[in-house]
Design goal:
Layout lengths: L2 E6 L5 H15 L3 E6 L5 H5 L3 E5 L10 H10 L7 E8 L5 H12 L3 E2 L5 E4 L4 H15 L2
Parallel strand pairs: 1-2, 1-3, 3-4, 4-5, 4-6
Helix pairs in contact: 1-5
The protein binds flavin mononucleotide.
Flavin mononucleotide binds next to helix 1 and strand 4.
Length: 142
């Protein structure tokens, strides 16, 4: 893929740090990452790609942030066959928001890269960063 678009939302920087680790993996694989805040996504450009990443922390009660939820609703009918890497940070939960999000995208016909979302408890540690970089390499390979 010419460029790998990584869409994200983050309030305190943890999911943003995850997005940066994915971008490092894309670069290590020779790709060009494009980090885009969810409010600034060009949906047509995004959906022209065979694969992309979306990141959002657990918010509400195991929910997506509202801006990401409306973005996902906007693309949901158009992601069949797309390869999507999902990621996000959480704190006190058990990752329920991510399991629900994966299920939602799979119901829309998307293939989730790695089979499940990548989650990190608060700030990504070295293990989480390594997993994110590996996923970034996979993303760049599409
Ligand atoms: C309003 C609000 C709601 C949250 N809801 C949850 C939740 O349901 N489950 C959970 O595990 N963490 C929850 N968190 C914790 C965040 O997911 C966690 O702080 C995360 O690291 C924030 O990521 P960010 O730095 O990318 O914004 C919530 C935090 C806030 C501020």
């Amino acid at each position: 893929m010419e460029k790998a678009i990584i869409v994200y939302w983050s309030s305190t920087g943890n999911t943003e740090a995850m997005a940066n680790a994915i971008a490092d993996g894309v670069k290590a694989a020779g790709g060009t990452p494009e980090l885009v805040y969810v409010d600034n996504v060009n949906v047509d450009e995004l959906l022209a790609q065979p694969a992309f990443a979306i990141g959002c922390p657990a918010m509400g009660a195991e929910e997506l942030d509202e801006s990401v939820d409306s973005f996902v609703s906007e693309i949901e009918g158009k992601v069949s066959g797309k390869n999507i890497l999902l990621f996000g940070s959480y704190d006190w939960g058990d990752g329920e928001w991510m399991r629900l999000w994966v299920e939602r995208m799979q119901n829309a016909g998307a293939n989730i890269i790695g089979g499940e979302g990548i989650i990190a408890n608060l700030e990504p540690d070295a293990d989480a960063k390594a997993a994110l970089e590996a996923a970034g390499k996979q993303l760049a390979a599409f």
